[in-house]
Amino acid sequence: MSSNRLKLNAGKTEFIWLGTRQQLAKLNMSPLQSKNQVITPLDKVRDPGVIIDNKLTMESHTANVVRSCFYQLRQLRSIRRSLTVDARRTLATAFVANRVDYCNAVLYGMSTAVTCQLQTVLNAAARMVIGIGKYEHITPGAS
Description:
This protein is mainly alpha-helical. It has two domains: 2-42, no CATH class; 51-130, no CATH class. The chain contains four helices and four strands, in the order αββββααα. Strands 1-2 form a two-stranded antiparallel sheet. Strand 1 (32-34) and strand 2 (37-39) form a beta hairpin. The longest helix is centred in the middle third of the chain and has 19 residues, at 59-77.
């Protein structure tokens, strides 16, 4: 690294061991040492906008997205009566759907539990846009 004039910033550098629970149990989780800097492995790291955990379950990332989307929905719900349906749709797309869509390719092949949490957020956003209650069906004619 020094030959390319790169320096390691231990305060900002993160590293993670990836594997199954059994594989991670076999590893020695000792800190990585490079010259005079020590970096300890983490259970989850953040790559621009995506939280990756050491078992690649994406549960931390999904929980973070769901939490931030429901926060935005609560904020929008407080002003929904003063907005038109088109304005609600635009705001829901900007604040909720775009967060769910961001880097969603990393969720390919994830468990149903992970995708169901994201679907719940999208359903709540659709209910807020249309103006129906929490337990009403989104699709017309569903019972």
